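Why predict the complex rather than its parts? Because the way molecules touch one another can change local conformation, and only a joint prediction can capture that. The input here totals 587 residues.
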Amino acid sequence: MHSSWLLVCIVLAAASLCAQKLGVGRAASPDEVKAWDIGISPDGRELPPGAGTSIEGKEVYDRRCKRCHGDAGKGGDETALVGGLGSLATPRPLKTVGSYWPKATTLFDYVRRAMPYKNPGSLSDAQVYAVTAYILNLNGIVGASDAMNAQTLPKVKMPNAGGFIPDSRPDTGAGKKKK
Amino acid sequence: MKDRRNFLGFGLATGAAVTLTYCASEPAAKSGAAAALEDEGRDQLGKVVTAYGERSTFEKTARLVPDTKTPATSSSRTPLADTYGIITPNALHFERHHAGVPKIDPAEHKLLIHGMVDRPLVFTLDDLKRLPSVSRVHFVECAGNTGGEWGLKTAPDVTRSHGLASCSEWTGVSLKLLLEEAGVQKAAQWLLAEGADACKMARSVPISKAMDDAMIAYAQNGEAIRPEQGYPLRLLLPGYEGNINVKWLRRIKVSDQPFYTKDETSKYTELLADGKAMIFTLPMDAKSVITRPSGGQKLKGPGALEITGLAWSGRGKITKVEVSTDGGATWKPAQLQDPVLTKAFTRFRLPWTWDGTEVQLVSRCWDETGYQQPTREELVAVRGMNSNYHCNVRKTWKIAADGSVTNA
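Output of the joint prediction:
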């Protein structure tokens, strides 16, 4: 009996050694992971609780974003967040959230991680949902009273959702891929 | 003793003469010989030993820093015409930051690996340095490098046309080793790499690349990575566009799908003429450029000189470089500096005699996949004019009869 337990121990020890080969680094706690896990997948699985509408978002935008991105996202010192629909195949394409971005989740993810430019991380999740709703509304993608939250945001259909194709290089010379 | 000082004096004088670009033999014979042997009053003792070295005060080459209202999201360019061999000095490696350079205490910095793994793990820098290390020479090139060459108005010098590329020996840990330590689950297809800078720059990386030649680098050319290159840790994905080599790396999340971050959708995607855009265009295609003679330089007169430049490919080794001195009508093979390394700068050289007439210099290269560097016309035909990124067309320099070199 005693010796068979010993055998089980040896097998288990070997298995865990085998799993973590070098034993360097320490286990991350669930709280540590949660605090840093800010990247949002297109299906929204990491989206936090909270919600906001375009009406609430305008207030956030005018105080925290307008200075750089202009009135109603039309662009100022910094890039426009609105407009450009139908321009992508012209000599002067205007790539904005509305005309170019394939996923609405990207807007929440990026604003939460990086904006406002000089104070990233200073908005609450509800404010990020709200300003996201406002920018989507300015682009005619969601209604003024539509609440953006973990359920609704991933379902938003972006105008250019079908506009992206895989890397088709090499596209010149002898080895070029057949179209 | 006197003899030895003379010898040293000669060494210094010839050192200074090298800065006269393409000095033909005639002026050297007139003034050079007498000057070369002068002692120039260096009888006093020189500077004492120092703890951290600096270059000669005679050397002035520097990164090109643009004048911009938002210097924290900007880039500086490597003066490629002033670098030698294949390694870019750390102080001259190009920069591109989206939210400035963070100041990070290496004792505080941590790397978290989590998501679809059996064991979420936290590594300190000390942990990583205990693990088996790898050192490899690789270029890093911004996807926007050479972007000015899509149009007919091309860049006037090689710093402006190609200076968003640099090459270093990187040392760190294999990413595969860390992922195996955490136990990557079967369904894993992508990972998110995220930096500790103010914008938490983030990119999705295919798991196949992560398990291939990816590394987490902590050193560059024999010393700790510079702050502007990601101190204390950066992701290095050999041959992939610069932006995905996430600097100040603090987190890797393993997933079954890509994240579509801002910098892989809004930016770093290639808009084609029909309005569709290619996404996840990660490897940099083969490219070459002549760095000397190149735009902005002035040849001192006809005679012997070396044509030299750099070639690189994100898909493997450079196998051949050819140089034309007649604008592409005829081509000569250039010598490649040994050893030719994969996904690294490759120095090429061709001894040449300039006859003093107007000529056009251009190079083209091939990599080990058989791919040939395209002309501008070939690339524009398939990508249109709105693509911005991944421009790898050939670059032509014109030498005028007075020796001045400009973009053709």
